[in-house]
Amino acid sequence: MLRALLLELAKSSRLRRWITTHGATRRMAHRFVPGEELAPAIEAARACNKAGMTVSLDHLGENVVTREDAERARASYTEALDEIAAAGVEGNVSLKLTHLGLDLGEEFCAEQLRLVTRRAEEFGNFVRVDMEGSAYTERTLRMVKQARAETAAVGTVIQAYLYRSEEDIRDLLEIGCRIRLVKGAYKEPARIAYPRKKDVDANFIKLMKILLPSGTYHALATHDPKMIEAAIRFAAEQDITKDKFEFQMLYGIRTDLQSRLVRQGYRVRVYIPFGQDWFPYFMRRLAERPANLLFFAKNFLRGTAPSD
């Protein structure tokens, strides 16, 4: 119930204005979002690289309403790819198609995506197309397949809580598409998604067991130690070496677990978001784990308490 409430609050423009203009909240958001500009994201990426991890940079934003906004978003991604190359950062980029104008038409959005993937190809880099709410699943997969027909420098995300995900994975594997497997962070109806956590977990493991032996380099995005241990056990049983897949985690969350996996020789990629439109992302992070909400509450009260 709390998760559903927080996801619903993420849609509130009034709450968005209050949180994004409150100094204490903005400072706390830096735990999950290192900055609103590219430069602090690059610095965070350098720190992750120094700690033995690669990164994926994401300029936060979604559901733009004008072509000009979509083109600015596209330019931010080509700039990020330029800076990654110039700074010698080990990392790629992740993006949402609604940030590139999917709501304005698939043809227009496809051209914006093509410009980003072409730049990635020039640098021998990679673009991960994030998955959004279920209203966009079919269109996202269709556009990823179109892009994948032109370049191998693009992959996508599959959400374990959707019933359709096994079929989608098998379809994507036929074209050699790289996949990031996640549990899913949006509020979805029970008619299309598993409502119980234990069923989502079981499906995550089932899908992981399809992905890892496929011969394509995939990513398992989770902070759940049980999911991670299940993947480690399965990989060992199947003689899948540690360089054949990677774990992905969010910036600022379970850094202890990130470090432990690196020490054990596993590949870890940290998802680093940046940008001014951080409110929806911030709310989803609070909804995902009670520990994040507790951190927010404690630090908010501390930050707003009157000084002596």
Structure description:
The chain is an alpha/beta fold and 308 residues long. It has one domain: TIM Barrel. Strands 1-2-3-4-5-6-7-8 form an eight-stranded parallel barrel, surrounded by seven helices. The chain is globular, with a radius of gyration of 19 Å. The relative contact order is 0.15. The C terminus is likely disordered.
Primary descriptors:
single chain; 308 residues; TIM Barrel; eight-stranded parallel β-barrel
Number of helical segments with 4 or more residues: 13
Q: SSE order in H/E notation?
A: HHHHEHEHEHEHEHEHEHEHH
Topology, number of strands:
8
Gyration radius from CA atoms, angstroms = 19 Å
Q: Could you list the spans in which at least 5 consecutive residues all have pLDDT below 50?
A: 297-308
- Identify the CATH class: Alpha Beta
Task: Kindly report how far apart the N and C termini lie.
Answer: 38 Å
General shape? globular
* CATH level 3 topology: TIM Barrel
Largest beta sheet: strand ordering:
1-2-3-4-5-6-7-8
What is the annotated CATH architecture? Alpha-Beta Barrel
Number of domains: 1
The share of residues in extended strands comes to: 5-15%
- Average pLDDT confidence is 88
* Sheet/helix structural class: alpha/beta
Q: Share of helix among residues?
A: 40-55%
Q: Describe the main β-sheet briefly.
A: 8 strands, parallel, barrel
Oligomer: single chain
